Each structure stands twice: as C-alpha cells, then as structure tokens.
Amino acid sequence: MKNKFSLHDEIVSWIKIILTAAVIAYMLNNFVIANSRVPTSSMESTIMAHDRVIGSRLSYKFGDPQRGDIAIFLWPDAPEGEKIYYVKRIIGMPGDTIDIIGSNVYLNGSDTPLDEPYLNEPMDPEEVPLHFEVPEDSYFMMGDNRNYSSDARRWKNHYVSRDAMIAKVIFRYFPGFKMLK
Fold first, then answer.
1. Contact at 8 Å (CB) between 144 and 119?
2. Alpha-carbon Rg of the chain, whole angstroms?
3. Contact between residue 73 and residue 84 where contact means Cβ atoms under 8 Å apart
4. What does the DSSP 8-state code read for residue 137?
5. What pLDDT score does 159 carry?
6. DSSP assignment, residue 64?
7. Do you find a cis peptide bond into 45, omega within 30 degrees of 0?
C-alpha cells in the first residue's frame, strides 16, 4: 500500500531541516570558527584588502595566543557598546617590552631586530623611538603592511586584552583558498 502524500508532513520535514541547519551554523559560527572580512591593505601581502578569512575560536579557547599568530580580535578603541573586529599579527606577548627604533622592532631589550619575513617592505622609520610595555594578559598587535596599518602603535589603547582575542586566523577562503602563517 502506498503512503499518501501529506503537504503538512512535507512542510514539517522542511522546517526541521532548516532549523537543524540554522542551529548547526549558529554553533559553528559562535563556538568553533570566526569569519572575517579584511577591509584594508593593513595585512598585505599576507592578506589582501577585501579578502575573507576563517579563524579558529578553539585555538584560543584551549590554548594561548602565540607571537606571530594572525588573530581576529575586538579593537580596543571601539566606541562603548560597539564590537569592531580587527585582523593583525601578534608582535608583543604579556610582559614583553617593544621598542620601535627607526624601521625596526626590538623585543625585550634585544640588540637584534625582530625577524619578520612576512613584511612586504621595510617599515617607514618612526620619527622618534616608540616604547611599549605589554601588560599581563594583553597583546601588542601590528599589521604586516606597516606603512599602511592602523595598529597598536597608533591606537589610544595600545594593547588587546586576552578576553578580546577571538580567533587564530587559519586560512583565506575568498578569493581562492590559501593557508596563512
């Protein structure tokens, strides 16, 4: 005996599928991955303007951010009540001192500049040396395209707190796929 088609049962079935997909998408986007669009050239040539990237929220839920990570984070100078997401590279770790002298970044009083093979071109020299002392539970962030990056050097609040670190960027998915380091 053939089952009789029921429009009601068909609609209920589609609603269940759509609700399940919505719950899965919500869970992934809020607990596993972070999706971000990079609107400026501040991370070129690692990430180009208008690229879309995926970050792993789990990386910072179960581990600590590391120097050199490209991270999605909440901008510390955002107006009260607003969430503005930035994508930059972690340069300074909790407790570090950062000195920017001329075109070079120095960590913790070292005489040797930080090795930064990801930079596309040398940073324009700073007119005066800059000195930053990264508080515990905070990070100092800079763009890879230093000459066109609004980063921690220029912010009113120079440091990103640990709880504002959202995700470690893993790959670019638009335009085209590219793993990021």
1. yes
2. 21
3. no
4. T
5. 98
6. -
7. yes
In this structure, what token pair is assigned to residue 149? 């990056």
pLDDT of residue 2: 61
What is the model's pTM? 0.88
CA distance 25 to 29: 6
Which residues fall within 8 angstroms of residue 59, CB to CB, at 6 or more apart? 167, 168, 170
- Give the C-alpha separation, 73 to 172, whole Å: 16
pLDDT of residue 57: 96
Retrieve residue 127's tokens. 């007119």
Run means of pLDDT, 10 residues per run, the chain, 181 residues: 78 94 90 92 94 96 96 96 96 98 97 94 94 98 96 97 97 92 81
Tokens of 155: 């912010």
Task: Dump the DSSP string for 69-118.
Answer: -EEEEE-TTPPTT---EEEEEEEE-TT-EEEEETTEEEETT-SSPPP-TT
Distances from the Cα of 105 to the Cα of 10, 34, 133, 137, 181, angstroms: 63, 29, 13, 21, 19
> In the chain, count of helices (H) and strands (E)?
2, 11
What is the structure's pLDDT at 1?
54
**Helix, strand, coil in percent for the chain, rounding step 5:** 20, 30, 50
Catalytic residues: 42, 88
Residue type for position 74: L
